Amino acid sequence: MRRSFRVLLCLAATAVGLTTLSAPANAAAHNYVALGDSYSSGVGTGGTYSGGGCKRSTNAYPQLWANTHAPASFNFAACSGATTTDVLNSQLGSLTARTTLVTISIGGNDAGFVDVITTCTLGSDSTCVNRVEQGKTFARNTLPARLDNVYSAIRQRSPSARVVVLGYPRFYKVPGSCNVGLSDTKRSAINSGADVLAQVTAQRAAAAGFTFVDIRGAWTGHEICSGDWWLNSLTWPVEESYHPNKNGQARGYLPALNAVTG
């Protein structure tokens, strides 16, 4: 009888242990920090922004993810206009050893995103193509070391965190039939810049052991000049231009993030 009782106790303890080990990961256990630039802060979605010049929106994918997953903590540190230097100097303080999930989009401003769009909007086809090529050269030759510095710093501050790097979409459907003032030559050039930026970012994220989310596939059919735009074209206020709108954040970025976080 005593032996049978001891066996039952052992089996019960084993069952409890197996239940504990096999319990699914709960998003509520996450300590989530959202880093990055305006594509992460939510510029382009309209409405009221918080964070002063950082322009953080309740319609941005980090906030939407936090709303639906209810993490243990959420720190929304992404800031409009941020470069890799800004992340290193102003955003990494949000990370701790207890951080379990980090998302980031960064690199577009380093590569001269605003100047590329301005040049292509105001200049000739050849001027646009040349400016995009300059940006692609920067992305291939200079940006990798900057991304490495950011990714290394994230890992040092949050050694156990899952880090998800989200890329940028292609901007235009080519050929496309809409009145946005840009030729197919310019649209193709801008898209080629987005492709190079995605390739470089994917390589450096992989080298750091991070998860890269290539947003271009999800955006196919939703570019400017498509039937269902997830990006603003030139609009007012101007700073909203060429950024994801509400659908871009909720139907583009959020599902892509959900796909890799469960």
Q: CATH homologous superfamily?
A: SGNH hydrolase
Number of helices: 10
Give the low-pLDDT segments: 1-25
Indicate the CATH architecture. 3-Layer(aba) Sandwich
Distance between the termini: 47 Å
Protein name: Secreted hydrolase
Domain SGNH hydrolase-type esterase: 34-250
Pfam families: Lipase_GDSL_2
GO molecular function, one term: hydrolase activity
Description:
Pfam families: Lipase_GDSL_2. This protein has 262 residues and is of the alpha/beta class. The protein has a single domain, classed as Rossmann fold, CATH 3.40.50.1110. It is built from 10 helices and 7 strands. The chain has helices at residues 2-22, 38-41, 61-69, 84-91, 113-122, 125-141, 143-157, 184-208, 216-219, 246-261; strands at residues 31-36, 49-50, 56-57, 73-76, 101-105, 162-166, 211-213. The strands form 2 sheets. The chain has a 5-stranded parallel beta sheet, sandwiched between helices. Strands 2-3 form a two-stranded antiparallel ribbon. Helix 7 (143-157) packs across helix 8. The model is unreliable at 1-25 (pLDDT under 50).
Task: Write a brief structural summary.
49% of the residues lie in helices and 10% in strands.
Question: Descriptors for this entry?
Answer:
alpha/beta; disordered N terminus; 262 residues; globular; Rossmann fold; 10 helices; Secreted hydrolase; SGNH_hydro; two-stranded antiparallel ribbon; SEST-like; 49% helix
